[in-house]
Design goal:
Elements (H helix, E strand, L loop, with lengths): L3 E3 L2 E3 L1 E12 L2 E12 L3 E5 L6 H8 L7 E6 L2 E2 L4 H7 E4 L11 H11 L4 H14 L15 H12 L6 E5 L7 H16 L3 E5 L3 H7 L2 E6 L2 E6 L1 H5 L6 E5 L3 H10 L4 E3 L4 E5 L4 H13 L6 E5 L3 H9 L3 H4 L23
Parallel strand pairs: 5-10, 5-11, 8-9, 9-10
Antiparallel strand pairs: 1-2, 3-4, 3-6, 6-7, 11-12, 13-15, 13-16, 14-15
Helix pairs in contact: 3-4, 3-5, 5-6
């Protein structure tokens, strides 16, 4: 099987899909997508609302049947051995499965019963997970009294009761405040450090950038692009080096020789198109030295995942990037779309 490396360890493929298709009536939700996710990594699936992210999760977690495709999860064929797949996975959906009328500990013990653990084993596992997720002090309190972040941590702790090797997290931080979101990132990193594979869907592009080993952008039922965060960012043009001057005379001299730069006369700043690479930055600095120009401030700006997302899922994405765009594609084929009206 294909392998990848994380923390120096070889890993096998945890989830694979070839030609995954799903339609509801005459609406095609997933139009032949391919995925391959190495074990012990975080994979993030991005896309606008209605792109099919949750449908993909439901299919791969055996909750919905695919119309077509060769699908394997945890080494098991989804079509012929769904029970083995269910035993290997855990699922945390968009909406919490926590019962607010009972305590956190009781929620955990209920999950232990559903996994047919003995009473003694169930209490041991529940106690370990409550401690691990910093919920031990609140274990005897009704879950309804928990904050949003605590409920989400309890939700994931409940998912881990059965010891899954693969976890599907469908928008796990939606509705959380920034501090709780960052705490959840720590939880996810901790899971992966133990060898768990995380399949993540999220609306927060920074979240994917921070957590994911690989990212796929789903649009119109197809994978518009897939790669590491850095690979995807290189798909989108628009990077530049900003040179700011405090002396108007030096600014005018620089503008006269850097004719390809965009001028900001009010700020005494020039924007020189650049891919942000070390080689190109060194070239710009060497050239400035050769003509005797010294800027007071130099900053490098590169496209972020917001730029990638808007370029690949915007109105002109289908005609410009097509449904087969990959990190090896010519960046000029993916238009840069401004974000002012998309917030």
């Amino acid at each position: 099987m294909p392998t990848s490396k994380r923390n120096g360890l070889a890993s096998s493929t945890a989830v694979s899909a070839v030609g995954l298709r799903k339609s509801y009536g005459d609406k095609t939700v997933l139009d032949g997508i391919d995925l391959r996710i190495p074990a012990g990594t975080v994979f993030a699936l991005l896309g606008p609302n209605g792109a099919g992210k949750t449908t993909a999760v439901k299919i791969l977690s055996t909750l919905v049947t695919a119309d077509a495709g060769e699908l394997r999860v945890g080494g098991y064929d989804l079509a012929t051995d769904p029970q083995a797949v269910r035993a290997a996975i855990g699922v945390t959906g968009q909406f919490s499965a926590v019962d607010g009328l009972i305590t956190g500990e009781e929620n955990m013990l209920l999950m232990a019963d559903l996994h047919h653990l003995s009473r003694r084993e169930g209490r041991r596992v529940a106690a370990e997970l409550l401690e691990r997720f910093d919920l031990a002090e609140a274990a005897k309190k009704p879950a309804a009294t928990y904050s949003g972040g605590m409920k989400r941590r309890l939700d994931i702790a409940m998912t881990l009761v059965g010891g899954p090797r693969i976890i599907f997290l469908d928008e796990p931080t939606t509705g959380l405040d920034p501090r709780s979101r960052h705490n959840m990132w720590g939880v996810i990193r901790g899971l992966v450090s133990t060898g768990v594979t995380v399949f993540l869907t999220t609306q927060y592009l920074e979240e994917a950038d921070q957590l994911a080993d690989r990212i796929a952008v789903l649009n119109g039922g197809r994978i518009a692009a897939e790669g590491t965060a850095d690979q995807l960012k290189r798909l989108v043009p628009g990077g530049y080096v900003r040179l700011r001057f405090s002396d108007p005379v030096r600014y005018q001299s620089a503008a006269a020789v850097l004719r390809e730069a965009n001028r900001d006369d009010a700020a005494l700043a020039l924007r020189v198109p650049s891919d942000g690479s070390q080689r190109e930055l060194r070239s710009i600095l060497d050239w400035l030295d050769s003509v005797g120009i010294e800027a007071d401030e130099l900053t490098v700006h590169t496209p972020d995942l917001d730029d990638v997302f808007f370029a690949l899922t915007g109105p002109s994405a289908d005609s410009a990037a097509g449904s087969t765009a990959r990190p090896t594609a010519n960046p000029a084929t993916v238009p840069h779309q401004r974000k002012e009206n998309d917030r």
